[in-house]
Amino acid sequence: MESKQEQTKKSKTTNMGTPKNFLIPIMLLHLRDWNSHGYELMEKIAQFGIESVDQGNFYRMLRQLEKDALVSSEWDVSSGGPAKRIYSITEAGEQYLEVWAGSLSHYQKMLDQFFNLYNPFFSPYKSSSQTKEDND
């Protein structure tokens, strides 16, 4: 039976080289196309496929992104309800997003090579309906 320390060490080594904080570039990507309230941004991220975002952590991340000058915010008092912050991406955020896009492109190439070696007949881009049609 492995100790907790050995299990932690194993999990750290298996995660080496994987992208960290994938939520940040997704947030910036959505803010690139439109300015948004935090709640709206959370909804867009859920539609993207990331549904397990803790609301408290999400807003802490937004505040940290603002401290890091990757996003800016201003108060929206135009609506009838309470004031809300509207977040937008900054030039530094655009540059950060560009670096992430380059990194993800590199990871995509490595993943393609992995799946080509793993199973040359497997195509991760085909939907299950396409696979059914191909087999009919």
UniProtKB/TrEMBL annotation:
SUPFAM superfamilies: Winged helix' DNA-binding domain
Domain of life (superkingdom): Bacteria
InterPro entries: Metal_resp_DNA-bind_regulator, Tscrpt_reg_PadR_N, Tscrpt_rep_PHB_PhaQ, WH-like_DNA-bd_sf, WH_DNA-bd_sf
One Pfam family of this chain: PadR
Domain Transcription regulator PadR N-terminal: 28-98
Name recorded for this polypeptide: Poly-beta-hydroxybutyrate-responsive repressor
Species this chain originates from: Viridibacillus soli
